[in-house]
């Protein structure tokens, strides 16, 4: 951490120039002699990234930021607040502290939080920021978290870990054993120091793959913010051998909705042709894969085994978007020319052989308007288009 960045004139410059195009800023002449221009530009870029994601940090004077990538990879305040609601107790140790957003909110629920961070410079930045914010019940320790756990030799109510993919990890599919720290390998070691572990992973991790690598998984929280899945939270409890609960959590500015089910539940879906209403699950429910449970819990019918769209005659509360079906048309040339060709509408594809781009190009569809067109397959394996109005 460079303390010269805290000079009042430099801090004021950073604030005044936040939001300016970084490429243009980088070409300007450095008006200061005490700090390298690259560092100042980096602070401006990182602060801009924090504006919407980390408003508490953005609106606090004297904050020092790490490289932009650290801000991009950290939890948002909204996600951190949700995580904090899941824990309680006297002590928590964060083995992969990062920029410290999660720990800031854990500290509101836990009396003593330990922030471990391998990167010494980042650890110093976080320690400084906690003083500025201010937070007094977080201790920052730089170094390897495994060694720190051994050196402290203490029991903690919670261990929190956010493993990162190794740089040499290839492909879209990854396993927890491909990450650092290697949680599956260290799990028994972690349970020597706690009874409860929370693991944060990227949404890319397949749930069934995670379950095959981990033991004692009591619950999984799929956290979506504004209908984009941001992270998976795995709650482990020492000795737990019961059924894993799935929580599909959809957070918006207005509310937080949670759809709950269990792994390998025995729910049975019902099927029907399109009725009066159409339902599209939110992204958290889609990630859960609990499509038969959706039909059973809400008392609505699936259109097809693989379509993941639902219908009913009576409107029900739902974990996702709801529509009135105004017209159901067969995917045939005559019907398409009459109802779809050249029209303005919002196109969605579910279990259909063409992509949204292909459909819009083929039928000259313009984006926008109030009509929502779902290209899908019904229970009779017929290709259909549902023209809907959003509720």
What would the average pLDDT be, to the nearest integer? 95
The CATH topology of the largest domain is: Rossmann fold
Rg, Å, rounded: 25 Å
Can you tell me the CATH superfamily of the largest domain? Vaccinia Virus protein VP39
Identify low-pLDDT runs.
Answer: none
Structural class, from secondary structure content? Answer: alpha/beta
Strands in their spatial order, largest beta sheet:
3-2-1-4-7-9-8-10-11
CATH-level-2 architecture of the largest domain = 3-Layer(aba) Sandwich
**SS elements, strand count:** 19
Tally of separate helices: 15
Principal-axes geometry comes out as globular
**CATH class bucket of the largest domain:** Alpha Beta
Q: Residue share in helices?
A: 25-40%
Strand content: 25-35%
Biggest β-sheet strands, sense, barrel: 9 strands, mixed
Q: How widely separated are the two ends?
A: 51 Å
Number of domains: 3
GO molecular function: methyltransferase activity
Domain PG-1098 ferredoxin-like: 277-316
Keywords: Methyltransferase, Transferase
Protein name: Class I SAM-dependent methyltransferase
């Amino acid at each position: 951490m460079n303390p010269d960045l805290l000079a009042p004139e430099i801090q004021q410059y950073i604030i005044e120039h936040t939001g300016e195009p970084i490429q243009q800023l980088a070409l300007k002449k450095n008006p200061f002699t005490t700090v390298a221009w690259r560092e100042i530009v980096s602070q401006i870029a990182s602060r801009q990234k924090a504006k919407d994601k980390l408003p508490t940090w953005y609106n606090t004077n004297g904050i020092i930021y790490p490289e932009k990538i650290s801000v991009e990879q950290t939890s948002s305040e909204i996600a951190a607040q949700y995580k904090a609601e899941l824990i309680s107790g006297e002590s928590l140790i964060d083995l992969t502290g990062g920029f410290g957003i999660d720990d800031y909110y854990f500290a509101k629920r836990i009396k003593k939080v330990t922030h471990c961070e391998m990167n010494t410079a980042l650890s110093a930045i976080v320690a400084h920021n906690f003083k500025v914010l201010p937070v007094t019940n977080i201790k920052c320790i730089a170094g390897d978290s495994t060694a720190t756990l051994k050196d402290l030799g203490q029991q903690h109510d919670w261990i929190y870990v956010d493993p990162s993919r190794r740089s040499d990890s290839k492909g879209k599919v990854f396993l927890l054993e491909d990450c650092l720290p290697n949680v599956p390998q260290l799990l028994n070691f972690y349970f020597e120091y706690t009874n409860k572990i929370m693991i944060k992973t990227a949404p890319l991790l397949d749930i069934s793959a995670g379950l095959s690598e981990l033991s004692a998984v009591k619950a999984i929280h799929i956290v979506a913010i504004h209908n984009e899945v941001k992270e998976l939270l795995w709650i482990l409890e020492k000795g737990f051998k019961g059924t894993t609960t799935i929580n599909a959590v959809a957070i918006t500015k207005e509310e937080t909705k949670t759809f709950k089910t269990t792994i390998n539940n025995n729910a049975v879906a019902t099927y029907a042709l399109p009725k009066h209403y159409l339902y599209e699950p939110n992204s958290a429910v889609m990630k859960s894969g609990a499509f038969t449970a959706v039909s059973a819990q809400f008392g609505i019918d699936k259109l097809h085994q693989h379509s993941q769209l639902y219908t009913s005659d009576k409107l029900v509360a739902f974990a996702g978007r709801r529509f009135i079906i105004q017209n159901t048309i067969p995917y045939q040339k005559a019907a398409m020319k009459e109802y779809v060709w050249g029209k303005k509408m919002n196109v969605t594809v579910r279990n259909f052989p063409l992509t949204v781009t292909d459909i819009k190009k083929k039928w000259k569809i313009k984006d926008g308007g109030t009509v929502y067109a779902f290209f899908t397959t019904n229970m009779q394996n017929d290709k259909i288009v549902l023209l809907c109005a959003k509720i």
